[in-house]
Amino acid sequence: KTKMRLTFAILALFLLPCLCYDRVSLETNAKPSSNWVQKHPVDGDANLELIFSLKQSNLDKLEKIFYEVSDPDHPNYAKYLSITQVQDLVRPSEVTLSTVKAWLSKYPVSDVQHANDYIIVQVAASVAEKMLECEFYHFEHAVAKKSIIRAATDYSLPRDVAEHVDFVGGVKHFPLLKVASQEKRAVSQDLQVTPRLLKDRYYIGDVVGSSKNNSQAVAQFLEQYYTNADLTEFFTLFLQSAIGNTPTVVGPNNYVAGVEASLDIEYIMSTGQDIPTVFWSTGGLHENQEPFLKWLIDIDNTQNAPLLFSVSYGDDEPSLTLDYMARINIEFQKQAVRGISILFASGDSGVGGSDGDCKRFVPGFPATSPFVTAVGGTTLEGWLETGKEIVNTLSGGGFSDAFPAPAYQKAAIQGYLSKMKTTLPPSSYWNSTGRGFPDLSALSANFVVVVNFVPMPGVAGTSAACPVTGGIFGLLNDARLLAGKPPLGFLNPLLYKLAVKEPQVFTDITKGSNPGCGTDGFQATAGWDPSSGLGSINFAEFVKIVNNY
After folding, report:
1. pTM, 2 dp
2. By CB count within 10 A, which of 20, 141, 246, 522 is most buried?
3. How open is the CA angle 103-107-113, to the nearest 5 degrees?
4. What is the pLDDT of residue 142?
5. Catalytic residue at 355?
6. What would the pLDDT profile of 324-350 be if each residue is shown by its tens digit?
7. Is 463 a catalytic residue?
8. Is 319 a catalytic residue?
9. Catalytic residue among 129, 233, 264, 348
10. Which residue out of 400, 463, 531, 536 is catalytically annotated?
11. How confident is the model at residue 411 (pLDDT cuts 50, 70, 90)?
12. What DSSP string runs through 318-361?
């Protein structure tokens, strides 16, 4: 008996470490852009910010409400929830909170912030490496020469903690750092795109916003800023009736202006003229911060958030983990059930992605999310580019490898695949059952932008098309609010139904493609296609029917 007890005791000693160190790796399928080059290890006393994304409750109910309030044929269409109702619906359980907090209390973390569904902590790198069992390094972007701190190895959490966490922000996500409007900029002799051309092209005329309850915003990351002096000069040159209009600034806005930020704010305030506008800036790209994630957390906790966001930002799907994208999708749903519209630029590399190896097309996220509206790019054909809209070859589009086609889009996708089966790219390059993007498109070439007092011609990219489209939907929201109706919220179910019932609200783009990877990409055709979506918006026709729903 004594020998048996001794044997069991020895076995227990060997088993105990296994039980204590039973851990689960998170975000294991990350494939960062090859532009990020690993440099040297982080000093142990360097301060890191970790964002623990807590698992939320009632996500099935959230998705059900999301589709009900977004479907114009549902009795609950546009019957949105308040911020408090959303927070109460998805609030993490007490077990989740107590488990994660108890584990964090074992380590010397500081400045612990509990932001509803997230816990944000500051911690020394040496401590973070012990907590997550990983190694942090400095990485430098080969093109932009920006530096960032990320884990060079997989990270993990104790199994009992991992059950309550979707992922830890600030560890694995490498931002794309690609500003399309700068990279695609070239001086052009073609017709220059200005606010007046856009107002004429999209049949806006002299319509401006007038509802005091309306709001629109551009979201900025990666240290992109604007100046009121540039905005005033832009309006003085191209839209004198808007002189004096300035946005409300949320977050940092340094003096030196960037092309991306200037483009966004100048053009959303042109097509969406006189609508109260917010320049929403999320601070910086340094150390290991996650500005995109922080932006979503901030919206989550803002009572009167803007009713519409235009976002010229994206990553390649393969560079992101499924855990990360799934959680971001939930955040998009949470904003939609509050009546907030979110539009994303679809990307500027056609079907090829930012640095894809061309063995497969590279879809861009968040444009591929089924819970946002993706905006692709067009240009004008003909002599001096004065003719009809055609697909801009840079227009990001295709099919998601991560998300299946949503119900609201399946018929449109099937119609395209059936009609165009003889012209489709090789099937090994793309996923025929995935969510198709973009949903809409707009002009995306030859924009004039004022940056640091200098009018800069030839700016291009879907980052131009997105704020243009955002401003148009800002005006459509304005019409609804003036009629005593709620805002449009998540747009896509309405858009795809209007494409069948009220096709006149779109200008269909039927010519061009978005080539990449040695292929022609996807050809445009009548109806929806994965290079121009449903087309561009005809405001004059859309505003006639916008209050019928």
Report:
1. 0.93
2. 522
3. 75
4. 83
5. no
6. 999 999 999 999 999 999 999 999 999
7. yes
8. no
9. 264
10. 463
11. very high
12. GGS-HHHHHHHHHHHHHHHTTT-EEEEE--SSTTSTTT--SSS-
